[in-house]
Amino acid sequence: MTTALADDQTVVQRIFDHIDNRTTDLSDETWREPVENYRSEARLAAEITQVLRRHPTPFCPSAALTEAGSWVARDAAGVPIVAVRGKDGRVRAFRNACRHRGTRLVDGAGCDKVFECRYHGWTYDLDGALRHVPHEHGFPGLDKASRGLVPVVAVETRGLVFVTQDAPAPDASLDDLPPLLTPGHRLLTTNELEVPANWKIVVEGFLEGYHIRSTHPTTFYPVQYDNLNVVERFGKHSRIAFPYQAINKLRTVPPGERVVGGKLTYVYHLFPNVVVATFPAGMVFLVVLEPVAVDRTRFVTHVLSDRPPDDGQLRQGIERSAGFVDVGAAEDRAVACGIQQGLASGANEFFEFGRFEGAIAHFHRSLHAALDAS
Ligand code: FES
Ligand SMILES: [Fe+2]
């Protein structure tokens, strides 16, 4: 199902209506997800091989690859991948392994003219071509043209680099996506953190505002609304708007001039495992949630801003905003771990997501459909 996202003015009006009527968006139905689906190794294997590796998934922001030779390497859906901007400006991505004896070529991020394997020095151009083999006479008949780095599909759009590793799922498409990051967005930080919880539990934590008051009593609750959201679906993805109290300042602004930055957080869930969230001071968090094991998830978090780097006051705003988001995010992680621990209790055969949690139902429905279609 494809539903176009509303413009900011429409979202703000829907939020005002909810504030005035003490309501929130409601989904048509509730959803029951079997607890077994969070515990099953076979289910996780299918999610990784049939869904994560077959859907175009944000690998890094374009802003991580600013110049020719810039590269980023990390594991995506359990596979070492490197993305690199070529001399022609195009971003390509490869399986991150040497074609001699398989050494992982690079780790982290950097900028280089070529990739040189640390083991025996086989050297690859930025377009993946095998350029140099030391003492090549030791490999009689080596067909260098067929021993370049193994490519995966990389597409740069909306300020993101999307990677699809295996044959794409039939309806995997980027056409539904709204603008996300602009060329003005700079990368401030990237960090990785592992959390002992199933990746779907972690995704769910981003997708509803029903928990704001209970989970975030001193962080988000004092400045946001509890259980007051605009929830939209587009393709397999969704967007949830979390308004701040400050949104009321827009009531006296003519609708056409209302700027939502700093007045609400948009959380975009990019199916299956990526969240893009907007925050005050022009900050955007791009969070990739990588399943590491059935009970373990790696957060790869990129923090970006579209504000000029040399403005001291703005930098203070960014630091304030980042500190606030960090504490709130730690509260969400603590809850995710609590759910993971609760799985072992045997208390629940299913989790029930109510009508405030429709974006989670949409996630599970899309995931079931993608698994069934494979
Ligand atoms: S494994 Fe890379 S050069 Fe030998
Ligand atoms: Fe939260």
Summary, kept brief:
By secondary structure, the chain is an alpha+beta fold.
List keywords for this structure.
374 residues, alpha+beta, seven-stranded antiparallel sheet, 7 helices, 30% strand, binds FE2/S2 (inorganic) cluster, binds fe (ii) ion
Can you describe what's shown?
The chain is 24% helix and 30% strand. The two termini are 18 Å apart. A hairpin with a 5-residue loop joins β4 (79-85) and β5 (91-95). By secondary structure, it is an alpha+beta fold. Fe (ii) ion (FE2) binds next to loops.
SSE order and pairing:
Layout: H1 8-21, E1 31-34, H2 36-39, H3 41-51, E2 57-61, E3 70-76, E4 79-85, E5 91-95, E6 108-111, E7 115-116, E8 123-124, E9 130-132, E10 151-157, E11 160-164, E12 186-195, H4 199-205, H5 212-215, E13 230-234, E14 237-243, E15 264-270, E16 274-279, E17 283-293, E18 296-305, H6 312-343, E19 350-353, H7 358-373
Antiparallel strand pairs: 1-19, 2-11, 3-4, 3-6, 4-5, 5-10, 7-8, 8-9, 10-11, 12-18, 13-14, 14-15, 15-16, 16-17, 17-18
The structure holds FE2/S2 (inorganic) cluster and fe (ii) ion.
User: What series of H and E elements makes up the topology?
Assistant: HEHHEEEEEEEEEEEHHEEEEEEHEH
Q: Write down the overall mean pLDDT.
A: 95
In what range is the share of β-strand residues?
25-35%
Q: Pairing-aware structural class of the strands and helices?
A: alpha+beta
Strand order of the largest sheet: 2-11-10-5-4-3-6
Report on the biggest sheet: 7 strands, antiparallel
The small-molecule ligands in this entry are:
FE2/S2 (inorganic) cluster, fe (ii) ion
Tell the overall outline.
Answer: globular
Q: Helix amount, in percent?
A: 10-25%
Radius of gyration (Å): 22 Å
Number of strands: 19
> How many helix segments?
7
Distance separating the two termini: 18 Å
**What low-confidence regions span 5 or more consecutive residues with pLDDT below 50?**
none
